[in-house]
From TrEMBL:
Flavoprotein recorded as keyword: no
Listed name of the protein: Ig-like domain-containing protein
A GO cellular-component term linked to this record: external side of plasma membrane
Transmembrane segments: 307-330
Domain Ig-like: 25-109, 210-275
PANTHER family: FC RECEPTOR-LIKE PROTEIN 4, IMMUNOGLOBULIN FC RECEPTOR
GO annotation terms (biological process): cell surface receptor signaling pathway; immune response
Keywords: Disulfide bond, Membrane, Signal, Transmembrane, Transmembrane helix
One Pfam family cited in the UniProt record for this chain: Ig_2
Length: 334
């Protein structure tokens, strides 16, 4: 400024007065808020208590007292700028050619409100690993610490770009296109910023129904047959249903069967079937092949009865003994 003043002395007397007035001018900085909301901004206003035609330079340094300052904007005609980062800011005014600057303004320190990012996760019900076409599945988007707030939910899958739902539950019956990765996130109704996307949950959908298998064993000497049904996929997830007759009619506990879910004991001869079921509403497997118990009549698999064979053989032996005794007595009488 001394050089400018000396130049003015030699050129124009009035310029000297003008430059001295500038030297005494100081910029002032104010902010509409000292804290930047998450995802928001703060407006800074720089002003000089003098006539118009000022242009403004804007500076920032980190919140550390000894950090280096750097210019973020230069020569703006507007008194206002918008910032979204924390730090310490100041400004200055300048005008004329060559430019004469005011003193630096006061500093304003802006802090950033630390946003506690809520997280989303997906729960699956039922939580089966192996899912078959046509099964009913419920997915729920759960927001950590999200109780009491009004949330909207957004879902994304491998085959579906985006789906917005009011509730966090997504219930559907599976198809081949249901296979893939599922993501969700939530957003409070009055908030512009959603949570992060959840980690994916993967659904694998098998295209055909599983089929039950029925095994039959005779309990020796008891007159009962042991029927065992199983489904060759995650056995613990299935309940078993039992049927009898050419047209399958369900056997309920107490109807000539001691039911223990996977196994039953039966004494009545006939045609038996089984199948598995799980979920609500119940999703059924295909019926097993029918098994014919205690007889070789009709179709189906034959289950022989050693007990019956023994009874027949015993009766023949008894009859034979009686015949021999009768012949012996006739000879003795003669």
């Amino acid at each position: 400024n001394n050089v400018q003043i000396q130049k003015c002395i030699y050129e124009y007397q009035s310029c000297l007065v003008h430059s001295l007035a500038m030297d005494l001018s100081k910029a002032s900085l104010r902010a509409d808020s000292r804290r930047v909301p998450a995802g928001g901004s703060v407006t800074l206003t720089c002003s000089v208590d003098a006539s118009a035609d000022w242009r403004y330079d804007w500076f920032k340094r980190q919140t550390s007292e000894y950090s280096k300052s750097f210019m973020i904007k230069s020569g703006t005609a507007e008194q206002n700028i918008t910032i979204s980062e924390e730090g310490t800011y100041y400004c200055r005014g300048g005008r004329g050619d060559p430019v004469v600057f005011t003193e630096d303004s006061n500093t304003v320190t802006i802090d950033k409100i630390k946003r506690h990012l809520k997280t989303a996760r997906i729960t699956q019900n039922p939580s089966w690993i192996k899912i078959f076409i046509g099964e009913r599945i419920s997915l729920t988007c759960v927001i950590s610490d999200g109780d009491g707030a009004q949330w909207e939910y957004e879902w994304r899958t491998t085959s579906l770009e985006s789906l917005t739902k009011i509730t966090g539950d997504w219930v559907f019956y599976t198809s081949i296109s249901s296979a893939g990765d599922y993501y969700c996130r939530g957003k409070q109704k009055m908030d512009l910023h959603p949570t992060m996307w959840s980690y994916p949950i993967r659904l694998t959908v098998h295209s055909s129904k599983p089929k039950a298998t029925l095994n039959v064993d005779l309990l020796s000497g008891s007159g009962y047959w042991d029927l065992t049904c199983y489904v060759d996929t995650s056995p613990s997830t299935w309940k078993y249903f039992w049927y009898m007759g050419e047209i399958p009619s369900e056997i309920k506990p107490g109807q000539d069967a001691a039911a223990s879910n996977k196994q039953i004991l039966v004494s009545q001869r006939g045609l038996y079937w089984c199948r598995g079921g799980r979920g609500e509403p119940v999703y059924y497997t295909e019926f097993s092949e029918p098994m014919k118990v205690g007889t070789n009549q009709g179709s189906g698999s034959l289950v022989s009865s050693p007990l019956m064979t023994g009874m027949v053989c015993g009766n023949l032996l008894l009859c034979g003994s009686l015949v021999l005794l009768f012949i012996f007595l006739l000879r003795k009488i003669k």
